[in-house]
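Suppose a colleague, Dr. K., hands you the sequence of a protein chain of 281 amino acids and asks what its three-dimensional shape might be. Before reaching for any lab equipment, you can write down a predicted structure in token form. Begin with the sequence itself:
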Amino acid sequence: MASLSLHLSSLHHTSTTPLILRNPPVNVRTQTQKLFSVRSQSAPVLSQDDLKKLAADKAVESVKSGMVLGLGTGSTAAFVVDKIGQLVSTGQLSDIIGIPTSKRTQEQAASLNIPLTALDTHPHIDLAIDGADEVDPNLDLVKGRGGALLREKMVEAASSSFIVVADDSKLVSGLGGSGLAMPVEVVQFCWKYNLVRLEGLFKELGCEAKLRLVGDGREKPYVTDNGNYIVDLYFKTPIKDGFGAGKEIAALEGVVEHGLFLGMATSVIIAGKTGVEVITK
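The predicted structure, expressed as tokens, is then:
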């Protein structure tokens, strides 16, 4: 499988290539990737928010009227929701309906007059767009540092196509390689018992498990929209077998969901200093 490359000059095409969307099931992989790039026309240095907005705008080009959309959660996904809201308000998009992956995305979408629904009434989603915390060369992901991993995975697994938007700081050689949190949502009951067990699963990777805390003094456990806690796993070396790790984590009683999103992404849109790179399977 081709490696991720940020040398966009070698990937530049003179014609616009549409994103390739695939049909379900979402976990089916193919062995090749297709890449193209769109050059940034402005000379000034772009901020991280500028890069996120570039990726978000490119992803929204795949949204068509009449679609059922999965609306992601996080700083990059917020730009996606904003753009969809703008297109709805100007009449450029019509008859769309969104399924939010968190309460805050629900509030944002509602404020923009984006019609909303739930998986209960719309179990098939045409397209989901969301951010990612890490993207590896196989387009596998770490997600959930925003705390919405369970709802994100439910919505994105039900989507025919799943486009990931991110800036180039999210690229890693292996999942867990950023040294930042890989979240695991657990029930509140005996959370410490599961924290110890999760840490023990990955001793050889130098894993440290911490309960996510919030508040000025970081004294209160973070509570998800589903009423659960999050145990964050920090790895000193990348996870060697993501699918194996996911199975081991999910097998622990009291674990609700983990932040490894494997074989789910259809396309990943990466915004870098010189433009936007679209990677498809």
